[in-house]
Amino acid sequence: xxxxTNIQNIFYEKANTLCGGSLYREAAxxxxxxxxxxxxxAKIYFGLGICYKxxxxxxxxxxxxxIATELKPDYFEAFYELGICHQLMGIGCGAIKNFVCAIxxxxxxxxxxxxxxxxxxxxxxxxxxxxxxQKLIENSPEYTKSYxxxxxxxxxxxxxxxxxxxxxxxxxxxxxxxxxxxxxGVCMEKLGNKSFARRYYRKFLSMQELSPQNEFIRERxxxxxxxxxxxxxxxx
Length: 236
Hints:
Elements: H1 2-20, H2 24-37, H3 42-54, H4 58-71, H5 76-88, H6 92-105, H7 110-122, H8 126-139, H9 144-156, H10 160-173, H11 178-190, H12 194-207, H13 214-225
Helix pairs in contact: 1-2, 1-3, 2-3, 3-4, 3-5, 4-5, 5-6, 5-7, 6-7, 7-8, 8-9, 9-10, 9-11, 10-11, 11-12, 12-13
């Protein structure tokens, strides 16, 4: 028995190393070898699920994460990853179910609560998602992602004034959050306040020279440069 355990550990550790190096197919093969020796180790099934998730084989990933939760009912990480996989598969109800399980195990996980809100968005339950984000903001006021996610949803709902308020509140806690400046700029532009939009766009660009959003923000800023406050084009 001890010999088999040692062999299993060798496969498991090698798999972990390969997974850490993004060699997911090779890692999966070693996890499978470890499972052949002992089919009752939840961590091995979890590792296998991670491999298939990265390989975008979400059905297989779900299968192995579910086995991990069966073997270890309080396996927070496995329930969390199950929720993520269901999101990636577009199965909102499955995602909600698993994030609820994860939160029951670890109620103080801001990331799990955030993902629960995102799952409700996936189910077109925007009001529920907004409630979750707001509760998260109240309970963890320095958790940046909740402000960004709530403002993004409000913008999708064309509630730009409310979205800008949330982002300005975020900047009180985190003045270095460059994405908040970009978001406020978009809100100001949508609300017709072009001078403030330009100001926030410039602030974003001064903070993020290499951001993937730069091209979009520069395009918006350039368009505003040639538009008057009354909406008439300015002749060069």
